[in-house]
Design goal:
By secondary structure, the chain is of the alpha+beta class. Helices cover about 40% and strands about 15% of the residues. The radius of gyration is 23 Å and the shape is rod-shaped.
Length: about 70
């Protein structure tokens, strides 16, 4: 009687840990866009490069219509 309950507790604990880890994973709905994403180049008013953002963290995918013209 004790062994089946222990086994059930172990399986439940493993399942709970897997669900906790899975909830922290990013959604896959934009996966293709992030794979095809290129580095972001920051330019000044004269077109000179200020910097390059090469990391995909904190990246927001926007269309050219969503970028303000100055």
């Amino acid at each position: 009687m004790l062994v089946p309950l222990g086994l059930l507790a172990l399986v439940s604990a493993v399942f709970g840990m897997m669900m906790a880890v899975a909830s922290d994973l990013p959604s896959l709905e934009n996966r293709r866009e992030f794979i095809n994403a290129k580095n972001t180049v920051l330019l000044d008013d004269n077109g000179q490069t200020l910097g390059v953002l090469a990391n995909s963290q904190n990246r927001y995918l926007v269309t050219s219509q969503q970028i303000a013209r100055s």
